[in-house]
């Protein structure tokens, strides 16, 4: 079993900074210090949905315009998403191709290592369960209640025997060595009621740990694993996508990665808990029993603190964009009618911890 921060996983993005743990030489962030919000989005009507997470903009802010907007506006949007965890844009007139362009612009602003000089890679993820030759292209995942009923689809909640609705809390694709920075989902087909999605803040959960527990967890890594996708792929009759899934570091059928348990978000510079019920199986360097206890405790902090969560009630054509580095989300399966939408997920940096980075409350002086 890999020990604490295996040597292949330890890099030093600046060439000399011993405060940095984790990361991969080929997927380092370009953001060596947090990005600054110039306030260019303030003129658009918006409101914060809770003190710690979520901001909603009225439909005066349209993705179609943002795609053509100057770099400052996109920078400010990336910072807003990373600070607020999730941003909701109401009533968007935007197609899946435009969503891809939009997601590419946000991930460029939000500091990923651009590997686009390598022809086989891109800023966007290809999900291992995406059917090849799908009409919307490899980088769009269709979220659909019909697919879900067939036992497939992106969400794996139904493969979990738990009857708790909270069993579905996850961050996207953390089984990849280079996981997601941002993801966006637009819901175009909705039940009359139900189908809400919840997000929770990893910054806030980090802030709820004692200083002793924070520093203990900062020395640890965990295994993230999505082998259950092989069963799901077999059920659906589609092979797993084992070629390059957006980054040359994300390929093959292992669907497994090791990441630091506490991670720094390079856009905000804030620390977050980075384990999730969907994919994290084992904390390294402790016994199996200790790992189970620690993971259970951390997952409970996410599911049971509704004051670290925001619950979004979708209207037709609303679009949510979230930062997967520092937040979790959970769908709600409380409806019988159809619900469907399109999702794009971009790739960020290989997760790292900067021991000198701050917690959210510390940085905001709370
Ligand atoms: O259907 C939902 O509300 C969320 C699905 C999901 O987990 C995702 O889009 O990443
Ligand atoms: Fe998800």
From TrEMBL:
Region (Disordered): 1-25
GO molecular function: 2-oxoglutarate-dependent dioxygenase activity; metal ion binding
Lineage: Eukaryota, Fungi, Dikarya, Ascomycota, Pezizomycotina
UniProt-listed InterPro entries: AtsK-like (IPR051323), TauD-like_sf (IPR042098), TauD/TfdA-like (IPR003819)
Record keyword Iron present: yes
Pfam families (UniProt xref): TauD (PF02668)
Any one of the GO CC terms: cytoplasm
Superkingdom: Eukaryota
Coiled-coil parts of chain: none
Domain TauD/TfdA-like residues, every copy: 46-339
Polar residues: compositionally biased ranges: 1-11
Protein name, UniProt field: TauD/TfdA-like domain-containing protein
Organism: Oidiodendron maius (strain Zn)
Family membership noted in the UniProt record: Belongs to the TfdA dioxygenase family.
Cofactors demanded by this protein: Fe(2+)
Keyword terms, alphabetized: Dioxygenase, Iron, Metal-binding, Oxidoreductase
UniProt-listed SUPFAM superfamilies: Clavaminate synthase-like
């Amino acid at each position: 079993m890999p020990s604490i921060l295996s040597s292949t996983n330890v890099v030093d993005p600046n060439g000399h900074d011993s405060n940095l743990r984790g990361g991969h030489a080929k997927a380092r962030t370009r953001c060596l210090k947090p990005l600054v919000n110039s306030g260019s989005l303030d003129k658009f009507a918006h409101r914060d949905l809770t003190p710690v997470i979520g901001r909603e903009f009225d439909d005066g802010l349209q993705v179609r315009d943002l795609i053509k907007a100057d770099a400052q506006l996109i920078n400010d949007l990336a910072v807003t998403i990373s600070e607020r965890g999730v941003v909701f844009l109401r009533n968007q007139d935007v197609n899946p191709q435009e969503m891809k362009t939009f997601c590419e612009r946000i991930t460029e602003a939000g500091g990923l290592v651009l590997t686009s000089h390598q022809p086989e890679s891109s800023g966007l993820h290809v999900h291992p369960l995406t059917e090849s030759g799908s009409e919307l292209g490899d980088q769009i995942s269709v979220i659909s209640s019909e697919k879900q009923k067939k036992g497939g689809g992106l969400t794996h909640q139904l493969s979990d025997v738990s009857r708790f609705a909270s069993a579905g809390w996850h961050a996207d694709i953390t089984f990849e060595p280079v996981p997601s920075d941002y993801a966006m989902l637009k819901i175009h087909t909705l039940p009359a009621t139900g189908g809400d999605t919840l997000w929770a803040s990893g910054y806030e959960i980090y802030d709820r740990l004692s200083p002793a527990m924070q520093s203990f967890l900062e020395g640890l890594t965990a295994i993230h694993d999505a082998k259950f996708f092989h069963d799901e792929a077999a059920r659906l009759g589609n092979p797993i996508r084992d070629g390059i899934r957006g980054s040359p570091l994300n390929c093959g059928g292992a669907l497994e990665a090791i990441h630091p348990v506490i991670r720094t978000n390079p856009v905000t510079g804030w620390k977050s808990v980075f384990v999730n019920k969907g994919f994290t199986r084992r904390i390294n360097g402790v016994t199996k029993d200790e790992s189970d206890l620690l993971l259970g405790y951390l997952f409970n902090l996410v599911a049971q603190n509704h004051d670290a969560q925001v619950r979004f009630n979708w209207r037709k054509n609303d679009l949510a964009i979230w930062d997967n580095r520092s937040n979790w989300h959970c769908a709600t399966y409380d409806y019988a009618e159809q619900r469907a939408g399109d999702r794009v997920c971009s790739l960020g940096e290989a997760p790292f911890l900067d021991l000198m980075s701050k917690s959210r409350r510390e940085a905001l002086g709370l």
